[in-house]
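Morning, I've got a small favour to ask if you have a moment. I've been staring at a protein lately and its backbone has me curious. You're getting the sequence in one-letter code plus the fold written as tokens. I've dropped the whole record in just underneath, so have a look:
=====
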Amino acid sequence: MSKIAFVFPGQGAQYVGMGKDFYEAYPSFRERMSQASSRLGFSMEALCFEEEEKLNLTEYTQCAMVSVCGGITDLLREAGIKPDVCAGLSLGEYAALYACGVFTFEDAVAAVRERGILMQNTVPAGVGSMAAIVGMSAEQVRQVCQETEGRVSIANDNCPGQLVITGEMAAVHEAMEKARAAGARRAVELKVSGPFHSELLIPAAEPLRQMLSEISLSDPCVPYVANVTASYVTDQKDVVDLLARQIYSPVRFRESVLAMYEAGVDTFIEIGPGHTLSSMIRKTVKGVRTVSVEHVADLLQLKEEMGC
């Protein structure tokens, strides 16, 4: 039987104007943005739709992304399009948890606002970095990291031949050179504000755990696949620990896609800015259907195709 997964992008997919056509077309989307503004104490509309430097600062990026992704998710629900499972890439896991009913919309937005502040402030600027490594397997990249002096490790296993490393800046630079020497097609430093998903973020885990433990969570109405384990989660009691560990652990997105595919998922609906996840999914499993819902036209086309 055909199954649908909702998947949500992570930090880096944001851009000025994301979600604006939904805002103009749907009162319910406008209401969500208003709720986010009220909860956080600043204008989510201005953050997302105007030329605003804050949008690319981690402490603002995350709540903007989850606000837009959550608002679009609501519109799919209203159309009768529902998932059998949800997953997200790093930050996107919080949008997935909203889609699964674990978080309320306002709690999801508030949680990632605090997460963004923690991530931005835990490691001083210039101490850490991240880099994309293309054309090597996860095992090859892991070997390069082990042979590099200093703290560097895999941050993201996105799809076959596409990984991200993270850690101390000097160690990341050395690992990039080692990767090139070992045959990587590309090794490119990323424009990020910190060494996300590295052990350097361990000090942020306990404050994050404490903050999340104060939020009222519900059991998922459909399962989600956790970044840390690449396994299905069906009980809210596991959520806080998984999210606390996620902040310093590798994102196992390739394995998550395989887990969903092996459970019968053949349609992946990417919700929010960009098409990056759809590309990763197609590189991981062949023959599946991927759909990106980034604009109103995408939603209308999907509704027509599904007879909604």
